[in-house]
Amino acid sequence: MALDILAEEIVGIAQELDIPIYIASVTVIGETPSFDGEYDALLDEYEDAQAKIADLKRVPFVDLRQDYKEYEWAYNCLNAYEGLLTYDGVHPTDDGGVMLGNGHALGIQTVIASAVEKYQDKAMQVVLLVLAHFCFCFFQVCILRYY
Fold first, then answer.
1. C-alpha angle 55/2/65, rounded to 5°?
2. Of 44, 86, 125, 130, which residue is the least packed, with the fewest Cβ within 10 Å?
3. Pairing relation of β-strands 23-24 and 61-62?
4. What pTM, to 2 d.p., does this model score?
5. Residue 72: is it exposed, middle or buried by C-beta count within 10 angstroms (0-12/13-18/19+)?
6. Element spanning 102, H or E
7. Are 82 and 31 spatial neighbours (Cβ–Cβ below 8 Å)?
8. Cα–Cα distance, 83 to 127 (Å, whole number)
9. Domains in the chain and their CATH numbers?
10. What angle do CA 145, 37, 82 make, to 5 degrees?
11. pLDDT score for 122
């Protein structure tokens, strides 16, 4: 699979440059709780590859796909393809966005904690850089969503 090689190379480059990084898994294409759709086997394979790369490279792994699956198993009693966490089977609803945001917040929090431990003398610079990045991303989302 070419994507796992690319992901491993990206993580390797970030580590060579001493850039803190985490890996967040793919999520879903379709929300049916059976997860036996056209792309689910491929997504599961890619999720497994991402987890292996994270383990191999010793970087945090946020398993967003598993979070989505657990939510769908608990709440998608109508076996709907879309509508709970996605509008169209892919793009997140507000609830899906919250789940993504919480997952990425966990990844960022883990990266910040390891950076603070590693660079105690430069910890405030790392925190300010991450906060500036978060604010910029949040601003972009607000602009795209409301304008």
1. 50
2. 125
3. parallel
4. 0.77
5. buried
6. helix 94-118
7. yes
8. 36
9. 2-146 (3.40.50.1110)
10. 30
11. 61
